[in-house]
Automatic annotation (TrEMBL):
It catalyses: [protein]-peptidylproline (omega=180) = [protein]-peptidylproline (omega=0). InterPro entries: Cyclophilin-like_dom_sf (IPR029000), Cyclophilin-type_PPIase_dom (IPR002130), Cyclophilin_A-like (IPR044666). Residues 38-179 form the PPIase cyclophilin-type domain. This is Peptidyl-prolyl cis-trans isomerase. GO terms for molecular function: peptidyl-prolyl cis-trans isomerase activity. It is an enzyme of class 5 (isomerase). PPIases accelerate the folding of proteins. It catalyzes the cis-trans isomerization of proline imidic peptide bonds in oligopeptides. It holds the Pfam family Pro_isomerase. CDD domains: cyclophilin. The keyword 4Fe-4S does not apply. Keywords: Isomerase, Rotamase, Signal. Its EC number is 5.2.1.8.
Length: 182
């Protein structure tokens, strides 16, 4: 009987691990970024940038990002979006204090764009195509692409040093996974 109980407990523990792995994504901190070519899944990192993640969620739930273009895309560096004017000068009207950390800017890292002032981030963000260590400690990291990076790679690139895009690709829709009917 005792041997049977041990097996039952072990089987139960195994079932729990299979059904709900310890590293399962938190739907409240998972962002779906739908592009014309496919879905990008971003794991938001509130432990790194709680105020930035909170603001991104507010804007996503207001459908702020739906239809906004990638106005600045530099091949081998990053794709930037989040400006409702499409010029790189607009935002939601609410600046955020910097939340710099030692988290590195790697391929797929999502960071907040800002002006010269460290406390000028608003709604614009960028996704790195490649490691960008020169940004480390200078910009707020708030997320990481966990799937769909191939679709980020397909975003139309800009020309020139500033990567300004003519006829740019758009965000089709952004959603928090917790808000999406399963």
């Amino acid at each position: 009987m005792r041997h049977f109980i041990k097996k039952l407990i072990l089987a139960s523990l195994l079932a729990v691990c299979i059904i709900a792995p310890a590293n399962a994504a938190d739907p409240e901190n998972t962002l779906y970024l739908d592009l014309e070519d496919g879905r990008v899944v971003i794991e938001m990192q509130p432990e790194l940038a709680p105020q930035h993640v909170k603001r991104i969620k507010e804007l996503v739930r207001l459908k702020f990002y739906d239809g906004i273009v990638f106005h600045r895309v530099i091949d081998g560096f990053m794709a930037q979006t989040g400006d409702p004017t499409g010029t790189g000068r607009g935002g939601s009207g609410q600046n955020l204090p910097a939340e710099f950390t030692d988290a590195p800017f790697e391929r797929g890292t999502v960071g907040m764009a800002r002006a010269q002032s460290p406390d000028s981030a608003d709604s614009q963000f960028f996704i790195c195509f490649a490691p960008a260590p020169f940004l480390n400690g200078q910009y707020t990291v708030w997320g990481q692409v966990v799937s769909g990076m191939e679709y980020v790679d397909m975003i139309k690139k800009g020309s020139g040093r500033n990567g300004i895009v003519s006829n740019p690709d758009k965000i089709v829709r952004m959603q928090i996974a917790a808000d999406v009917a399963q």
